[in-house]
Specification:
The protein is α/β, with parallel strands linked by helices. It contains 17 helices and 16 strands.
Length: 495
């Protein structure tokens, strides 16, 4: 019989067993990144004597509450710069060598945690005989402030601390997961939004090679990284706001957490994120993938039909917008592409078209690009689209961003979920299909299940895509209309 006390490389951990699932929470995988370790690569954790309690979650990474994340149930009641901890769920701490799934949470690189209600690994453990790991990593200014060009070698990788934290967590998995009943040679990394973008970066991140065997990307790909010049400009703006001279960067280590958060809070969305720093990330991950950095990694990747709806439905700019206002919003967002969009699209400009084009631009197109690059390497790639529409807010959100998460995790009964998904019993039907597909992919690199129609690998001739809904089906090139508008407009811009 498995025990709740497990011996890790760094010391013994006391977990708990609930309904046949064992869990260990708040396990340190790196030293606290505080004081002189702020803006530095993570270091190995210290060992401890005796048995460490691992029955409650650690604080989440330093962050401010964002309204959208509050809606998703993100809890920021306990935040700390000392946040580099992970959590494990397993059917048993034995020698069974089960598939391992390591989750990287989303939140635009500035918010979120590995301890959200939706990310409870119990169902994966019971239904899939899988070991699940969820992690925290440094966010925002603490995880992605690129000081390399300003402060030199000492800060060379500061713009990728958050990604280096993820790598440190994967190293911990390699060293320790066998003691928790997992197989270190069968690790799937998966994430959503900024978590999926992180997975995309890790596919092209040299120090992550060999630490995982499969990858799942939900609503994110490998496109979202900053060139060093852009990241340096952002860092300069933060230093100016903090009134810190480039010659005195060590002062950054002494500032209160709140002061750093406030300075970064005024930045536009996604200003802080992974950086092509020339050291930890030598080149754009898409380029690395095109050159074969992940050629042996099976990939499952997809998006939601109406990703952008949640970002625009509550935007006051759209409230009662007349034709002139709609045109102004398009021009502000798309600039010189507006007349081209109008030429390629017979419908009048509308919020619906706006949402469709931004869904394609930010989410679907990068996913298809990654699928293409990885497929060209001969790696198996499967594409999906989540089409089930939530009835909340009179159906305005449709199949929006992040909606698939509690379906993938089979956590529809968790707190804060019904305010996003509604309460209809039919939801479970969709969850059963997705949950099993993810389990099968983690087990053997193929998401096909008995409950789904035959799901072929992605290719550029037909672009077969599994459409998840009450009646799931494979559709070839389901985003063709919007993709053609976007590709044609972009080609005209290049010419």
């Amino acid at each position: 019989m498995s025990n709740t006390i497990v011996e890790s490389v760094y010391g013994k951990l006391q977990g708990e067993q609930i309904d046949g699932v064992y869990s260990w929470k708040g396990i340190p995988f790196a030293k606290p990144p505080v004081g002189p370790l702020r803006f530095r690569a993570p270091e190995l954790p210290d060992s401890w004597e005796g048995v460490r309690d691992a029955t409650s979650f650690s604080p989440v990474a330093a962050q401010t509450q964002k309204e959208i994340m509050e809606f998703f149930g993100n809890d920021v009641s306990n935040v700390s710069e000392d946040c580099l901890y992970l959590n494990v769920w397993s059917p048993g701490a034995d020698d069974k060598k089960r598939p391992v799934m390591v989750w990287i949470h989303g939140g635009a690189y500035v918010t979120g945690s590995g301890s959200g209600h939706w990310y409870d690994g119990a169902s994966f453990a019971t239904k899939g005989d899988v070991v699940v790991v969820t992690i925290n990593y440094r966010l925002g200014v603490f995880g992605f402030l690129h000081l390399g060009e300003i402060g030199g070698e000492e800060y060379a990788t500061s713009g990728n601390c958050g990604i280096l934290d993820q790598v440190a967590a994967l190293h911990w998995v390699q060293e320790n997961i066998a003691a928790f009943g997992g197989d270190p040679n069968n690790v799937t990394i998966f994430g959503e939004s900024a978590g999926a973008m992180s997975v995309g970066v890790l596919l092209g991140f040299p120090s992550a090679q060999g630490l995982f065997q499969k990858a799942i990307l939900q609503s994110g790909a490998a496109a979202n990284v900053h060139p060093p010049a852009t990241a340096t400009k952002v860092a300069g703006a933060i230093l100016a706001a903090l009134q810190i001279e480039a010659s005195n960067l060590s002062k950054l280590e002494e500032l209160p957490v709140e002061q750093l958060l406030q300075a970064a809070d005024v930045l536009p969305s996604m200003s802080l994120g992974p950086v092509i720093d020339g050291v930890s990330l030598p080149k754009h991950p898409q380029l690395a993938i095109a050159e074969g950095s992940a050629k042996d990694i099976p990939v499952l990747i997809g998006t939601n039909k109406d990703e952008f709806n949640i970002f625009s439905v509550f935007d006051p700019e759209w409230k009662d917008a007349d034709e002139a206002k709609v045109k102004a919003i398009f021009e502000k967002t798309f600039g010189p592409l507006v007349p081209l969009i109008a030429n390629f699209n017979p419908e009048p400009l509308s919020q619906d078209l706006f949402n469709k084009l931004l869904t394609i631009h930010i989410f679907t197109y990068p996913a298809q690009k990654l699928a293409e690059l990885q497929g060209n390497q001969g790696a198996p790639v499967w594409m999906y689209r989540f089409d089930w529409e939530t009835p909340v807010f009179d159906g305005a959100l449709k199949a929006t961003h992040a909606l698939e998460i509690p379906f993938v995790w089979n956590t529809l009964d968790k707190p804060n979920t019904t305010n996003f998904t509604g309460t209809s019993p039919e939801r479970q039907q969709v969850a059963d299909q997705m949950h099993q597909a993810w389990i099968n992919f983690a087990r053997n690199g193929n998401p096909n299940t008995d409950a789904l129609p035959s799901w072929p690998k992605y290719d550029l001739n037909f672009r077969p895509t599994m459409i998840f809904n009450l009646e799931s089906a494979v559709v070839n090139d389901p985003n063709r209309a919007e993709r053609m508008i976007w590709e044609q407009a972009a080609m005209v811009m290049k010419s």
